[in-house]
Amino acid sequence: MAEATATKEKPAAAEETQDLTDGFHLVIDALKLNGLNTIYGVPGIPITDFGRMAQAAGIRVLSFRHEQNAGYAASIAGYLTKSPGICLTVSAPGFLNGLTALAHATTNCFPMILISGSSEREIVDLQQGDYEEMDQLAIAKPLCKAAYRVLHAQDIGIGLARAIRAAVSGRPGGVYLDLPAKLFGQVMDAEAGKKSLVKVIDAAPAQIPAPEAVKRALDVLRNAKRPLIVLGKGAAYAQADDAIRTFVEKSGVPFLPMSMAKGLLPDTHPQCAGAARSTVLKDSDVVMMIGARLNWLLSHGKGKTWGEAPKKFIQIDIEPKEMDSNVEIAAPVVGDIGSCLSALLAAMGGNWPGAPADWTGSIAKKRDENVAKMAPRFMSNAAPMDYYGALGVLRTVIKERPDAILVNEGANTLDLARGAVDLYNPRKRIDVGTWGVMGIGMGYAIGAAVETGKPVLAIEGDSAFGFSGMEVETICRYKLPVCIVIFNNDGIYRGTDVNKSGGVDPATTVFVKGARYDKMMEAFGGVGVNATSPDELRRAVNEAMDSGKPTLINAVIDPASGSESGRIGNLNPQSALKKK
Question: Alpha-carbon distance 499 to 508, whole Å?
């Protein structure tokens, strides 16, 4: 026995502990590797710990009160930076809340990635009734540009890389990335995990237009008698500002900016035809679309808006399928806007003839007439205020602070502000975009403030503010330089409607009379002001913009001021009996 003890080998030294990582850390490391250092979302099962860990790892995580608003913040972050904004939500209802913003981002061509926790596949597929069980991937697919699910930790790097490329390449858009709860807890070797991550290279490569397409477009433009350039938000997104300005000025062609393209060239530029919009759309013979689509915002390129004069269209877009979507495009130019403008400039040579003087002169005359007609309305100091008196104050604020970012939504508040407030720099106006929906206000304001560090002026209709108003707490919590001005006329469109049944309920479009939205801001430690005249509004906005403190100004507007459905009343169906 003693001999056996003597000859027994000593136990081998314990192996060194293997370095491990898990799904939580791999997602965080993949985001950081690709420069995605800000997350907008709402914490909850199963992503609560992920948010904590991401924040601890140096990622800025901003928690919202509702996922839709977090999604809007992520989408506008994508628009402003050309890098996909990240929205993080819980499963099922949280995912559905974020899905509105994802679909909106896709429609507006904003790069965004919605990351949602989800139930396990084996339970979802058998419909066994898991907590917040939902086949989220199937629901997301038809509403976004691409959708992916990651089931294994070693695929996290590839999954995020594919989402990034899909979001920013070609025509940008929204991407859904589904991460089941079990994925976060999966463990693997740390070194193997590091090697599995992917740093995306050249995610949005240049797409060079065909030389013959460039020549065709310039031939059509050169022969125009009444040419017009329409700038869309795609042109603003491209950040090819110098090339766009050089092309417009070298061509001598009047330009019409769509709302989010305002400021690519100043609205006060001598070639700007914004104040003569109806005239140039109706009378032009050649229209060059740069990053703009002939959708409902431009009456689909036909009908009374465009008059009876025959039109030829030139369209620059990265998506070939966009061509001929509503009318025939005589000269399609397919490619990214920066490359297309560079090619056009190179092919123009040094002796471009410019637009005919009689055309540019007639536009200048019409523009000046319209500007002079509106000037007295913006100078009104009446109380209660109408829309024009209030907007006259805010147009001056933006003129004095051209680097501030303007967020705008509502019905009358949106429609009138679009034409009233001049912009001087690119990507300084963000609004409801292609769908024309309300609810983007506070999400966009937060995203813009976070991504740019610039002061934000949000001009909100009282109805529009209601969709995202609780995010004023988020603005106060993060101490963001956001000044919100609510045009409060006691209702939707107007606050004077009546219940025609004679019942005690208020009319469907009427809100609480004399509501004090400013008190909401005070409740969360921000600054609240009740402004009843243009002078009071001017003082309050200037103080807010100077201080950078979260501020909400309740701008009291005459309840009778406003019109049904703003300027798109034609889209509001009327009863056939009412017409008789």
Answer: 8
Residue type, 451: E
Q: pLDDT (tens digit, 9 = 90+) per residue, 361-409?
A: 999 999 999 999 999 999 999 999 999 999 999 999 999 999 999 999 9
| 341 within some domain | yes
State how many domains the chain has.
Answer: 3
Residue 2 lies in a domain: no
Q: How many CB atoms lie within 10 A of CB 513?
A: 10
Q: Is residue 328 part of a domain?
A: yes
**Residues pairing with 485 in the sheet:** 459, 553
CATH number of the structural domain spanning residue 441: 3.40.50.970
Q: What residues make up the domain containing 540?
A: 379-564
Phi and psi at residue 555, in whole multiples of 5°? Answer: -90, 110
Q: Quick one: average pLDDT of 197-212?
A: 98
Cis peptide before 46 (omega within 30 of 0): yes
At which of 364, 394, 423 does a domain end? 364
pLDDT at residue number 579 = 54
Residue 40 has what DSSP assignment?
A: E
Q: What is the DSSP letter of 159?
A: H
Q: DSSP secondary structure string, 379-421?
A: T---SSB-HHHHHHHHHHHHHH-TTSEEEEESSHHHHHHHHHS
Verify that 142 and 237 share a domain, yes or no.
no
Q: Write out the two tokens for 371.
A: 């500007």
Cβ–Cβ under 8 Å, residues 69 and 104: no
Distance CA(544)–CA(457), nearest Å, equals 9
**384 with 352, same domain?**
no
CA separation for the pair 407, 428 (Å, rounded): 8
In the predicted structure, residue 3 carries a pLDDT above the cut 60: no
Q: What is the structure's pLDDT at 575? A: 66
Q: Is 35 exposed, middle or buried (0-12, 13-18, 19+ CB in 10 A)?
A: exposed
Q: Are residues 180 and 234 in the same domain?
A: no
Q: pLDDT, tens digit, for every residue of 214-245? A: 999 999 999 999 999 999 999 999 999 999 99
Domain shared by 249 and 141, yes or no = no
For residues 339 and 400, state if they share a domain: no
Residues 235 and 188 in one domain: no
Residues of the chain with pLDDT > 90, as a percent, come to 89
Residue given tokens 């500002």 in the structure block: 241
* pLDDT at residue 121, as a whole number: 87
Q: Are 229 and 318 in the same domain?
A: yes
pLDDT category at 14 given cuts 50, 70, 90 is very low
